[in-house]
């Protein structure tokens, strides 16, 4: 397992390198591009002295390298400062919004993976039939339909026209419970979850379905299945072998999907007025609340990177064939 | 198989035959039913993008007025306003025509830009290997680590929204997949006997790269260009829908943004459905063409 | 007494182009403790026979005629549950593709244990000592038990496969081209291992190969197969005094059987398509001695010696053929013209 440790270390170093690079890009953007964040606070009526004091307050007087080091340290320790507008620590805001986003994504991913895998193994089984061809092309087409338009349509029909579901939000007004966990256990939350979750699923179900279909086809043609039959194993045992082999790539797929969705659902959060991290980013940018925007962007990037890292590592653990080189 | 051969042959042909080769590829794609439908629809969109603004009954931001000289707000579809009007009395049908142009400009330019960038990086990285490859691939890793939508939103909110900026951002997003795919392809091509032969015959490194290898990855580059057009149009729509598009032009995403903010989902379906439908239709027609093209590149797909 | 009898066995594959009869009326027997070699070019149906014996024909293949009798019971008529009791416990398989014969996500030990647990109620200690015994038999290190198949070399994997085949002490081992894809030295090692096991444990073996030399060196009896049919069948006589021109051709193609200094000759052209078989002798198209009769009428197996049969119209001229078949030009001239 020496190779594994070296591999993990290399992947970890790469992860750190990419995180630092992304942070540096973010730093450069916020420092060097026109549109000084302080312009929000500095009124044109301010005297020079007041401007200087403000600058000192925000550490903008220090040399650039010191600002960079301080910024890096703060970001990597998740100390995102204080929101310009909400006057609360940014990390608290971001954690809350991440939980909200997670509350939409996790059920959607779980359902998509389970249903998608079932659909995929059925497709692998019915290979070559007319229905199979139609479903596959349908899935591929579904993957290319812009899901935010689907979201708008669904909201128009099921919420505004038919009135079956609430028109957005995560809970009804006054529906917040003591804690996040209590909130998401209410029926009210479930009612709000269904539409965005379904819309997310229409897209996310395609990937596990198509993936499992192709891996099933691959596994079905493997020689080792013949040997298992020759060994006198029951059909059930043989299916266990086949499924275990076919499921391998799916695990990676789930991790990648989760990582991607934490930033990919911005549009759905806007459409369904879901108070998640993507919607928070958009409103922070509109309000010029830079600490919040920076933090939202950073955690989204970090989540993608971490999940991709997890995907790589997991794949190595569950598939003994992966060579760590 | 035969069709795949036509393709590689077309890739290897000299520049003079390039247009003929593209025409032949399109002809082959057209033989697939999905490819034919997709091509027809794309052609239709292209025609609209070119002549649309000229035949549009109203300007993209021109308020329609009723007989009394007042702004005709939220008119349902009728003979004079085929798709009705917005809350500001703007003709939805005209906006749709203007919007097609914006969508295609963003899609096509960013697709071409990203494929040139991605192909060059993939070619150089895959062919030269060593530290060049290392540097370029780490840059690609960083590019993959940047979440596109949040990044674009941050940049636009700092630099101000404009169409060139949107195109630049979309380009920066799209090149990374192309470069990885092209690099992988170059890595396999590099070991093929005809490359050894060329080297033995005294061809220079750049000669081998651009005369012998590049033509063989072009079919793949074209595929990623088509996928890029689809991605570009989608991303522009997403940015505009979030209100980060160029406010001086109207695009499908921008129309949806205005409609969404005006609460048209409740009141005016004719304002919401057409831009979304146009977007979906365009994206699906590109999908149909790329699907046919992919089958053509990889005959195994047909059996899969 | 016959352990396994193939009786007039025919197997067909449904293909897009029609039914392909891969095995056509084959009858052979394997006695207890006997080592039978089944030789032929690739595609002649020999691997199909191996698959049929273990009931692992692909979904488009089926036994259409005849029987596969194991100790008198027709395996083709058994229910899946009954067949599963025979599989591996009585008849084990060493497959052509040991490379892919193991499930990649389980260790070798797990897979051998699975074979045991399916048929036996052994304690963990019994399982362990049995596997240890077998690893010694095939010459493998105990330490490799916990390894995954991909960590083994091709030769090692094939040894592990042989160990797995022997683990339940079966009465018959079917080895289907067990050395495909291995380098020559490893091939020899594997074949010696099998031979040794055969001698030491007195197990019946069915070795399927395209290599006449391998069969000559290892087997008690030989069946030569061509285009789905047995064309010659007997003991060592088969390659010492072949009666079928195809057997003569096969003997020419391998150095060990050829006289010193003689060139290796391969039989020109390819076997006929199973979808479109000729009316007469299936080998006529490639046979340098074919006559009009050969092209019109399919020859039946006739006795040419003690327990030695051949399917050729011209067995009487065999001695003459044998002389002539030693020369390259005989084969290069192509089939005799009428």
Features:
heterotrimer, A: 325 residues, mainly alpha, MetI-like fold, 2 domains, C: 338 residues, alpha/beta, Rossmann fold, 13 helices, 12 strands, 34% helix
Q: What coarse outline of chain A follows from CA principal-axis ratios?
A: globular
Please tally the β strands of chain A and state the result.
0
Strand content of chain A: under 5%
Share of helix of chain B, binned: over 70%
Q: Which CATH first-tier class of the largest domain in chain A would you pick? A: Mainly Alpha
Number of domains of chain A: 2
Assess the beta-strand content of chain B as a share of residues: under 5%
Q: N-to-C SSE series of chain A?
A: HHHHHHHHHHHHHH
Give the overall average pLDDT of chain B: 79
The domain tally of chain B reads 1
Enumerate how many helices of chain B there are, as a single number: 13
Plain-language structure description:
The complex is a heterotrimer of chains A (325), B (304) and C (338). Helix content of chain A is 74%, strand content 0%. Chain A is mainly alpha-helical and 325 residues long. In chain A, helix 4 (90-125) crosses helix 8 (187-204) and helix 13 packs antiparallel against helix 14 (290-318). Chain A starts with a helix and ends in a 7-residue tail after the last helix. With 304 residues, chain B is mostly helical. In chain B, helix 8 packs across helix 9. Chain B is elongated and about 85 Å long. By secondary structure, chain C is an alpha/beta fold. In chain C, the strands form 2 sheets. Chain C has an 8-stranded mixed β-sheet with strand order 6-7-8-3-9-10-12-11, sandwiched between helices. In chain C, strands 2-1-4-5 form a 4-stranded antiparallel β-sheet, covered by helices on one side. The model of chain C has no long low-confidence stretch (mean pLDDT 86). Chains A and B meet through helix 1, helix 5, helix 6, helix 12 and helix 13 of A and helix 5, helix 6, helix 9 and helix 12 of B.
